Amino acid sequence: MINKEKQKLIALLEEIGDVVFIDSTEKAFIYYFSTLDLQGVSSTLSDVHKFDSCYKSKYLEYIEIFFNELKEKGIEKLSVYKGKCTNCFKGQGAITFVDKKSGQYIDLVLSIKYNEIIDISECHAVKNHTCFDKKLRLNIIDDRPF
User: What is the mean pLDDT of residues 131-145?
Assistant: First the structure.
């Protein structure tokens, strides 16, 4: 729990800018992924777990390529929408990251245990709580040999 003195300090730092207080690994991942920050995403992932069936180092290589492709298209930030999987992970919370201008998006399901991300899966059946225009599905991993 954060005391009032620390809350005031955090508020002052946030006013200065470039300071964001994030109180969970999930929120940190969402923030870093939406801002296309590879180092930030890396800091939220454990070296022990696999993500979408890949070890962390390989998964980060895929994410780096994905982020670079977005940046080459002029995309610097993705909007975040919460939703739920309606198929394989039925009912589990999901996150949609979307570029509002182009409608390009990706849906991810994060599996979290004890504030640690233990898996990330791309999802192709997310129903979002907010309506928006999804036009072109993006994939982090689209050339797997299996």
Answer: 64
Answer whether 138's CB lies under 8 Å from 105's CB. Answer: yes
Q: Give me the number of domains the chain comprises.
A: 1
Q: How far is CA 15 from CA 8, 11, 12, 31, 90, in A?
A: 11, 6, 5, 18, 40
Closest CA to 87 of 51, 126, 53: 126
The verdict on pTM exceeding 0.85 is: no
What range defines the domain where residue 75 resides?
23-137
Residue 39 located in a structural domain: yes
Tell me the per-residue pLDDT of 84-107, one tens digit each, with 9 for 90 and over.
988 887 778 899 999 988 888 899
Domain of residue 97, CATH code: 3.10.450
